[in-house]
Amino acid sequence: MSLPRREHQDRAADEDNRGVAISIDGLARSFGAQAVLEGIDLKIEAGSFVAVVGRSGCGKSTLLRLLVGLDQPTSGSVRFSDPVTGAAVAGAGRIMFQEARLLPWAKVLENVEVGLGRRRSLPTARAAASATLAAVGLEGRENDWPGVLSGGQRQRVALARSLVSAPDFLALDEPFGALDALTRIEMQTLLEGVWLDQGFTALFVTHDVAEALTLADRVILLEDGRVALDQVVDLPRPRRRGSVDLALLEEQILKAILGSERVRPEYEI
Amino acid sequence: MTVAPMNDATSLTLPRRVSVLSWSPARLVEWGARHGAPWLVPLLLLALWQLGASLGAIPPNVAPSPVDVAKAFGRLTASGELLSNIEISFLRALGGLLVGGSLGFALGLANGLSPGSERLLDSTVQMIRTVPHLALIPLVILWFGIEEDAKLFLVGLGVLFPVYINTFHGIRTVDAQLVEMARSYDMSGFELFRRVIFPGALPSIFVGLRYAIGIAWLTLIVAETIAAQSGIGYMAMNARDFMQVDVIVVAIIVYALLGKAADSLVRRLERSYLGWHAAFRDRN
C-alpha cells in the first residue's frame, strides 16, 4: 500500500508516535430534556483502535459527532494531544459515515479530493487523491460516476476520502453496516491494513460485537449514555474469525449488553 | 425509456455517431425505426389532411391544404416577412426569459439559502404568483402601450415563477447528509454552494427552465395577438383580417417548431450537465 504518510516519516516506525491521544472528560450531551450522553470519561491512547458498541440509541453516534466537531457538547471537554510532547493539538479528525455520502455529480477522483479539506484546491490534490484511491484498491476508477459503483466500492471511495488528508484521528460511524457479509469482511481487512500502515487513532462505532472484536484493541460498551464496559482485546493480528478466544470475548460482551434484559426461558433443554 | 435491442455486446462499445453508410441494412432499419417513429403520426395526419382538402371534404376557408400552407410558407419566406417576424418573436421570448428567469433564479437562490430572506419575500412572491399574469394585459397596455416593454414585462412575469419555485425547491431538497459531509471536510460559503448545493439543485432548476420556456411562448402568443405590430402572433392576427387562413396555419406551425426547438435545446443541456444522473445519461 502506498498511502500518503504523515509528515514525520522517520518516526513512522515507532508506533507510539502516530495518531493523537484523546482524553474525554465528563462529556455530556442532551437534546432538550433527553440526555444522550451523561458524563463520559475516556482516555484513548494515540494510534489505538477503539470500538464502541451498544444498542441503537445508546449515544455511540453522538459521541463520534462530538469528537469530530459536528456537534457541540452540553458540558465536558475533549482534548487531543501529541503523544510525544503531550501538547494539545487541534483535533483534525475525519469521519466516515454508514452511507458513503459521495457527491453524485463529482467523479470518483474529485470525491476523494474533497477529503483534503482546505488543501483540496492545491495542485498536489490530484496526485494525493489518486494515490489514496489506489491504496483502497480502486485504481483506474478515477473518472467513474459514483452512481455506477457497487455499495462496497462506494464505501472504499468514502474511506479514501477520509484518509487522503492523513488524519491523526479517524471516526467511523458503522461504516460497513449496510454492506453484505462478504464485502464487509473485505472492508474490515482493508481498514485494518490502512490503520496498521498509517497508525491514526481510530474510533469505530458498530452494533456488531464480532466486528468490534476483529478490529479493535479495546471495546467500549455504551449503555444509557455511560460507559458500561471497557474491555481490552489483547489478541494477535490478523485475528482469525471464529477463533475460540474471540468467541469467548463476544459471549462476555453480549452478556453485558443483553444481561439485564435476558429472560429465563420457561423450559430449558 | 427506450429499449433498444442490444443483442451483441459489441454494439454497446460502438461510437455513437457512426456514418449511416457503414451500417448493415438491419441496423439501418433499426436506426430508422428509432428516429423515424416519433414522426410517423404527424406525417400520417398530414397525409389525411391533404387527402381531405384535395377531395373537398375540408373547405379552404376552414383549413387550407398542406400544399397551400407550404406555398404560403414559401411566399412569406421569400418576402422576408416570416424571418423578420420570427426574429422579433424570438428576441422577445429570449429577453423575457433572461430577465424573468434571472430574477426568479436570484429570488430562488436567496430564499432557498437564507431563511430570513424566505420569511421576508416568499409570501409576497406566492401572492403575486396566484394572479394569472395574462389577466394583467389590460393594465400592461395602459402602462406600456403596445411597445416592446409590454411583451418583455409579461413574458418576464410569467417566466419568473416556475424558475423561482423550482430553484427554491431544488436548493431546499439538497441532501442534508451531503451538506453535513461537506462541512465535516471544512467546506463552507461559496465552495459549499459550488460543489454541493448548486449541482444538487440543478435537476430541479432545469425542470423550472423547461416550464418557463413553455410559459414564455404561451405569453408571447397571447401578447402578440392582442397588442403588437410585429411578431408571429401579429402576423397571424393580421392574416385573419384578410382571411388568409394559410398564413395563420403557418404561424401556428412556426410556434410549434420554435417551442420544440427550445425544448430540445434544454434537453441537450440537461444531458451534458446532468450526465451523472442515471435519468439523463445518454441512452444510445
From TrEMBL, chain A:
InterPro entries: AAA+_ATPase, ABC_transporter-like_ATP-bd, ABC_transporter-like_CS, ABC_transporter_ATP-bind, P-loop_NTPase. Residues 22-249 form the ABC transporter domain. GO terms for molecular function: ATP binding; ATP hydrolysis activity. The keyword Cell wall biogenesis/degradation does not apply. Keywords: ATP-binding, Cell membrane, Membrane, Nucleotide-binding, Translocase, Transport. SUPFAM superfamilies: P-loop containing nucleoside triphosphate hydrolases (SSF52540). Pfam families: ABC_tran. Belongs to the ABC transporter superfamily. This is Aliphatic sulfonate ABC transporter ATP-binding protein. It comes from Telmatospirillum siberiense. The lineage of its organism: Bacteria, Pseudomonadati, Pseudomonadota, Alphaproteobacteria, Rhodospirillales.
